[in-house]
Amino acid sequence: MEMNMFLNLIIILLLVAALIYAMVLNHRLSSLKESKREILQAVQSFHEVARSAEVMLSQIRQSSQTITEQLKTEMNKASLLRDDLVLLMEKTTSSSLPSIFNESHNKPKPVSYIRPRKSNTEHNFGENLDIYQSEAERELFEALQRLKGS
Q1: Cβ(119)–Cβ(125) under 8 Å?
Q2: What span, in angstroms and rounded, lies between the C-alpha atoms of 107 and 95?
Q3: How far apart are the first and last CA of the chain?
Q4: How far apart are CA 130 and CA 73, in angstroms?
Q5: Closest Cα to residue 68, out of 147, 76, 56?
Q6: How far apart are CA 103 and CA 18, in angstroms?
Q7: How many whole angstroms separate alpha carbon 36 and alpha carbon 31?
Q8: Which of 13-17, 49-53, 78-82, 123-127 has the lowest mean pLDDT?
Q9: pLDDT tens digits, residue range 38-95?
Q10: Contact 138, 88 (CB under 8 A)
Q11: Are the CB atoms for 89 and 113 separated by under 8 Å?
């Protein structure tokens, strides 16, 4: 009977060891499930942040396209103004050529472009627009006045 008791005691010890091991394993599995939930929440929050970043990037792209179009428009306007200024300068040069030469046939005087006289006070472009010869000059100075006012 001692042998039977000894075997029963060994089986009881093995069952207790298996029970303790099962409890430790259960604890580890439950902590793994908790960490899985935390990881899932972290992944979901990362997904939301990534989605909002995509939305913001698309808005930035749209605004940059709008700004690019506005800049192109402004550059085209500036190019047209530059062309107008070149034409005005050519017109001024061609209209002032006969008065460059004096009667003694000396060397031509340097071309001076028509400009309003500078005064000590700041010039108001809205006053005396009639001193400028062409309509393009008037429009240019009106545009300068609008830019100065804004």
Answers
A1: no
A2: 18
A3: 110
A4: 29
A5: 76
A6: 126
A7: 8
A8: 123-127
A9: 999 999 999 999 999 999 999 999 999 999 999 999 999 999 999 889 888 888 877 6
A10: no
A11: yes
Q: Give the residue ranges of DSSP H helices in 101-134.
A: none
d(CA 109, CA 106): 9
Q: In 3D, which of 143, 138, 141 has the Cα closest to residue 77? A: 143
Q: Look at the pTM and tell me if it is higher than 0.85.
A: no
The SS3 of residue 42 is helix
Lookup: tokens for 12: 């009881």
> Is the predicted pLDDT of residue 112 greater than 80, yes or no?
no
Amino acid at 141: F
27: left (phi over 0), alpha (psi -120 to 50) or beta: alpha
Angstrom distance (rounded) from CA 60 to CA 67: 10
Q: For residue 147, what are its two tokens?
A: 């830019």
Residue 42 to residue 40: CA distance in whole angstroms: 5
Hey, is 48 helix, strand or coil? helix
